Amino acid sequence: MKEKYEEISGTSQGKSLFESLVQTYPSRVNIWKKYALTEYKHGHEKHDVRLMNARTIFEKAVQSCNNLTDSNSKIKNIKWLFKEYLAFEKAFGYRSLDHSEWIQRIKDLAKQFVLTQQSTQKSGKKTVDQL
To answer: How far apart are CA 35 and CA 50, in angstroms?
Structure first.
């Protein structure tokens, strides 16, 4: 499979394959990461376009993980995803003029996720206490 992947990476066929995979397995953050890295490393556009495409994929991955219903899986996956997204931005986005804004955006998204989880847990506890 790796050879096939390398053969089609960066092409519209490769994008279609990844889109199909992330739709079928939305909680598989390793697939989302591989998709973003492939888009960045093997895309045929200029650096800034490839960087933005990869960022968009990471953003979609965050949204996809936010939609998971299993909270244990959700927390584990999104924690790993935020670490990978931040590492990607630090490794590849540093030449971009808006690099510091993207670093802050990722941190803000992570903070927002934590606050939402805390709020959800508190409201869930109130419901249990009321019973």
So the answer is: 12
The domain spans of the chain are: 2-67+74-120
Write the CATH number of the domain with boundaries 2-67+74-120. Answer: 1.25.40
CA 29/CA 67 separation, integer angstroms: 13
User: In this model, does residue 124 exceed pLDDT 80?
Assistant: no
64 contacts: CB under 8 Å, gap ≥ 6? 22, 26, 27, 32
Residue 80 has pLDDT above 50, yes or no: yes
Rounded Cα–Cα distance for residues 121 and 34 (Å): 32
- Per the rule left: phi > 0, alpha: psi between -120 and 50, beta: everything else, 92 is alpha
Helix ranges (H only) for 1-131 are 2-8, 12-24, 29-42, 47-66, 71-92, 99-130
Q: Is the full-model pTM beyond 0.85? A: no
Pair of tokens at residue 119: 């709020």
Give the residue carrying structure tokens 């995803």: 81
